[in-house]
Amino acid sequence: MSRDMIRDFVSESIKRGKQWKKIRLLGGEPTLHPEFHEILNDLLQYRNWHSDCEIEVATNGSGWAVEAVLKKIPIGIAIANSKKTSNVQPTFNSFNLAPVDDPAYRHANYKNGCSVMKEGIGLNPLGYYHCAVAGGIDRIEGNRLGCAHIPYDGDSMASVAERLCRLCGHFKDGHFIPVSLRPRMLEHKISPTWAFLYDKWRRDKLYQKNGRASNLTGYQRRYLPGSSPVFSQKEHLQDSVETTTTASQVL
Fold this sequence. Notes:
- It is built from eight helices and six strands.
- The relative contact order is 0.20.
- Strands 3-2-1-6-4-5 form a six-stranded mixed beta sheet, sandwiched between helices.
- It has one domain.
- Helix 3 links the parallel strand 2 and strand 3.
- By secondary structure, it is α/β, with parallel strands linked by helices.
């Protein structure tokens, strides 16, 4: 995500009186963002307006470059460090096991989502989603479902959840499982639909050098040079920070 997107999130949040309980910076690895410290400063400006907001950085803590950045994070910003030691994180759940590939979920109502939605909405370069995980799924599936602006409080984004939760392994958990009770993940598992989507995503990337702008979401087009389109606040954009009272940024 660009710093301009973060600034716009802060500006719109203040303009609309959104008092987020928590803003989490996720990744990838957010500390490797080239403007990481500037983004933290932008979010601290939001906290100057709403002092009860907690700002948290979720990091894997892996490597000297990440460790060096973590040491410079200002006091008062929380750090959630998973302390990654290998490519497989035993306490993580694989979201690459799509419920749609499991006959047991053939009658599931994906509009209901799962416990991740209770953590709040997510924002990534494609726009706003009902949870932070959904934005990452849409980036691979390529349906461009992100919302151009912070959704209204009454907008559950159920139609987006219905499309994306069918692909998310977290939906199969249904509820939050404490780390101590999770089965250990010793290998990264991928269901057939995800194998197909990753293959398609890699092939599509080869064709994005030409006509790239036509593949952008409305949210992304806001940041093209010389562009300032106007969007409906409830617009769900076809073709692609966590909150109910929480917000999440995905860098």
